């Protein structure tokens, strides 16, 4: 049985990056709560046109903020599946892993490669759906 060895430096960098992302998300959620309180007070006494503008910006910004990571994930998964399919090996030789994993060859590798490519395609479809939602929100909340 062939083993694809983990890259310890890659694992360390990845875990540090995840820890930093978790702390940033916690900080942003805390600040979001404070910001939403201020926005609620401001929009509660504003005219409908201002409210429409805020909703337009909020929905389009949220859609774009979710579409970009979905597209990145989809492209990365498609690239991983394609490389594995070309090499007939999963994971591909030049990819780094967080832990030691068993290498799949031939038919099992192709099955995994196709599965990963389909997941990547699904993430790209999700990103396109989010972009369609952005376009709809931009149109729906535009000034009449």
What does the model show?
This protein has 3 helices and 4 strands, in the order βααβββα. By secondary structure, it is mainly alpha-helical. The chain has a two-stranded antiparallel ribbon with strand order 1-3. The N and C termini lie far apart (66 Å). Keywords: Membrane, Transmembrane, Transmembrane helix.
Summarize the structure.
Keywords: Membrane, Transmembrane, Transmembrane helix. This protein has 144 residues and is mostly helical.
Q: Order of strands in the sheet with the most strands?
A: 1-3
Mean pLDDT: 91
Q: What structural category characterises the helix and strand content?
A: mainly alpha
Q: Domains counted in the coordinates: how many?
A: 1
Any idea what the radius of gyration is? 22 Å
- Sketch the major β-sheet: 2 strands, antiparallel
| Distance between the first and last residues' Cα | 66 Å
Number of helices, counting only DSSP H or I runs of 4 residues or more: 3
Strand content: 5-15%
Order of helices and strands: EHHEEEH
Shape: elongated
Count the beta strands: 4
* Low-confidence parts: none
Question: Into which percent range does the helicity of residues fall?
Answer: over 70%
Protein name: DUF3899 domain-containing protein
Keywords: Membrane, Transmembrane, Transmembrane helix
Organism: Lysobacter niastensis
